[in-house]
Specification:
The complex is a heterodimer of chains A (118) and B (511). Chain A is mainly α. In chain A, helix 1 packs antiparallel against helix 2 (25-45). Chain A has one domain: Helix Hairpins (Orthogonal Bundle). Chain A is built from four helices and no strands. Chain B is mostly helical. Chain B has one domain (2-501). Helices cover 71% and strands 2% of the residues of chain B. Chain B contains 21 helices and two strands. Chain B has helices spanning 7-22, 27-54, 77-97, 108-124, 128-146, 152-183, 188-194, 203-221, 229-236, 239-244, 246-262, 276-296, 300-320, 324-354, 356-359, 372-387, 393-404, 411-438, 457-474, 476-491, 494-501, and strands at 58-61, 72-75. The longest helix of chain B is centred in the N-terminal third of the chain and has 32 residues, at 152-183. The radius of gyration of chain B is 22 Å and the shape is globular. Classes of the chains: A mainly alpha (118), B mainly alpha (511). The interface between A and B is large, with 37 and 38 residues.
């Protein structure tokens, strides 16, 4: 199980990083989503991987799974979900205002305007 | 101090909700609520500073759950000073924005109050995961503020800013997860106890987690090589928002100082001063790159943004030395550079708006504009402060940092880079000022901007920032007394840990 979880986190992170580095906003959004999935599973695994254990310490229970990472993951999921919604709306708005969907606001091959801006 | 400790977080949160729910259609009421609340915040944080000056650190347990199981917020000298700084800066910015800027988009005041809540929370919290949550709160508010009164250029910069920060948040969670996996706690005071007891086999994992966390804080603090988001963001953000963002880079610097002096400081065994060897060289390069950017800038906002990067370099040099002298000097420079950066952004906007749409903030010769004499004086006072020339506080700050760097291994580098970059900063600002103000006297005509009535409030707000710099200079001795106490408190962590955990357990079992 450890190998399965670890390699799936690695795969998600790899794909997420690759997508994040793309030039258009859509792959970037997908990349961010993949990265946040990877980190959610990672956080979950940080409480040690166990199966069929109660998530709470009670009298008479000696083996239990750590409840804290589950609470952390819940917070992280809520935040990353909201952020994904925000960035989707923002990319659509940017596409409508700028006229293309490149993260630096210009299609490949066109000269940079940014040099004069700062 | 009882429940007063939580007021700097609760007050802006309640006020933001009130503004967005009850008075969202009435800009005048929004301004009244927002300004009144910020004034009250200044009063509360001032009394918290006075309390922290006379007392040991005090803990407030949210929901009355005892640490390390519940989330705590902690008031000590450093956090009290930072929330006071935030509320003063917030007051200046809200006054500046309340004449015209807040009408360019929706919900400026609500977002502004949420931003204050997030920043205050990040300064007060005593829990690493809670720090992440408050980072998110302040970032979400900052996304809204950054895009306030949008436009193509601002949307582009905003998009990049958001993607960078979302990636940073992901890394933050990875770092937090690794630290929790090894130590079993995320409470900062408890971390200080657990870190030295970590088994040798787990040390590498903990070190990796702590350094990933450091990387995230460096992104926030705009340290080279992760500073690329700052110039575009600050130069394209609305001016009052850019001025408020002067505190956001300091949140990164504060987090480095807090986490790496408490959890990974003197008593951390193998992990002692973990951050130092990485930050110091990067900070020196940051300072150099920032000031080269000042020389190369073609627009006033870009120039100011790069000078902010340079000042972050200076600040982090003194923090990274991790000695009591350097940290008190660095905290003084932190106060100074916050006000200097904010004042420059506000004055830059006054200049750009008076030069009209054609010239704006481009560093080109243009005809004389409205109130150019007054603005020239304000600009040069702020520029003198930023460059660190006498008589203002930047000079005192840099002098103390140079003095504190005497014993460092890299002292030659630190001295030469700080001195040379100060000269570059003077040249950069001198060139910009002469193009904007003096050469314009020789150009034909006068710039008239249609439909503008130039309210006086923004100028008052900008002058207020400069007055804060003058006050820092005049009251340097009492402020330094406070800051030396702050540095001493950061090095002697027993009071902090006792405040959070009660009596320190002599030996606590590891996991």
């Amino acid at each position: 199980m450890e190998f399965l979880v670890a390699s799936s986190i690695g795969l998600l992170t790899m794909c997420g990083t690759y997508m994040l580095l793309r030039g258009r906003t859509f792959p970037v959004v997908i990349g961010l989503a993949l990265l946040s999935y990877a980190v959610n599973v990672f956080l979950f695994a940080m409480g040690r991987l166990t199966i069929d254990m109660p998530p709470i310490l009670r009298d008479g229970v000696t083996e239990y799974t750590d409840p804290l990472p589950q609470a952390l993951v819940l917070t992280a999921i809520v935040i990353s979900f909201g952020m994904t919604a925000l960035i989707v709306v923002l990319s659509i708005r940017a596409y409508l205002e700028i006229g293309n969907d490149h993260v630096d606001g210009r299609p490949v091959g066109e000269p940079s305007e940014a040099g004069d801006k700062n | 101090m009882g429940h007063w400790i939580v007021v700097p977080i609760v007050l802006p949160a309640v006020m933001a909700a009130l503004i967005v729910l009850a008075v969202r259609h009435d800009i005048v009421l929004q301004r009244i609520f927002s300004i009144t609340s910020t004034v009250a915040l200044v009063a509360v944080t001032l009394s918290l500073v006075i309390f922290a000056n006379n007392n040991n650190p005090e803990m407030y347990a949210l929901g009355d759950w005892p640490a390390p199981f519940g989330i705590v917020i902690v008031l000590d000298r450093l956090s009290a000073m930072m929330i006071f700084l935030t509320s003063i800066l917030g007051l200046g910015v809200i006054l500046f924005a309340s004449s015209e800027w807040d009408k360019r988009g929706q919900h400026f005041h609500a977002l502004f109050q949420f931003q204050l809540m997030g920043v205050n929370g990040a300064f007060l919290t005593g829990d690493v995961f809670n720090l992440f949550v408050f980072f998110e709160v302040l970032l979400i508010a900052s996304y809204g503020l950054m895009l306030h009164g949008a436009g193509a250029e601002r949307l582009k910069a905003g998009m990049q800013y958001i993607v960078i920060n979302l990636t940073g948040s992901t890394l933050f969670l990875v770092g937090v997860g690794m630290i929790y996996a090894v130590t079993g706690t995320l409470n900062m005071a408890d971390l200080a106890i657990q870190v030295p007891q970590v088994a040798a086999g787990d040390a590498a994992l903990l070190r990796a987690g702590a350094l990933i966390l450091l990387l995230v804080f460096c992104v926030k603090a705009a340290l080279v090589p992760v500073h690329f988001w700052l110039p575009g963001t600050y130069a394209n953000a609305p001016a009052p928002v850019a001025a408020l963002f002067a505190i956001m880079t300091k949140v990164g610097a504060y987090s480095i100082l807090r986490v790496y002096s408490l959890g990974f400081g003197e008593n951390a065994g193998d992990m002692a001063w973990l951050a130092q060897p990485y930050i110091l060289p990067a900070a020196i390069v940051t300072l150099a790159i920032g000031m080269i950017g000042v020389l190369a800038a073609k627009r006033l906002n870009g120039l100011i943004a790069f000078s902010v990067i340079g000042s972050m370099g200076t600040l982090l040099i003194s923090i990274a030395l991790f000695t009591p002298e350097s940290i008190s000097a660095g905290l003084y420079y932190l106060l100074h550079s916050t006000f200097a950066g904010a004042a420059l952004f506000l004055i830059g906007d006054l200049v750009a708006s008076r030069r009209g749409a054609i010239y704006g903030d481009k560093l080109e010769t243009a005809p004389v504009f409205h109130q150019s004499g007054l603005l020239a004086v304000l600009f040069f006072v702020a520029a003198i402060a930023m460059a660190g020339m006498p008589p203002l506080s930047g000079f005192i700050g840099k002098l103390m940092i140079l003095d504190a760097a005497r014993d460092s291994d890299l002292s030659v580098w630190i001295w030469s880079v700080i001195l040379v970059t100060s000269l570059m900063c003077i040249v950069g600002f001198g060139r910009a000022g002469s193009v904007l103000f003096w050469k314009s006297a020789s150009a034909e005509g006068v710039i008239e901007v249609e439909g503008a009535n130039w309210p006086v409030l923004p100028i008052v707000a900008a002058c207020g920032m400069l007055c804060a710099l003058v006050a820092l200079t005049v009251f340097a001795a009492p402020i330094m007394d406070y800051l030396q106490g702050t540095a001493a408190q950061l090095f002697d962590t027993t009071d902090y840990i006792r405040a959070v955990l009660g009596e320190i357990p002599a030996t606590q079992s590891g996991q």
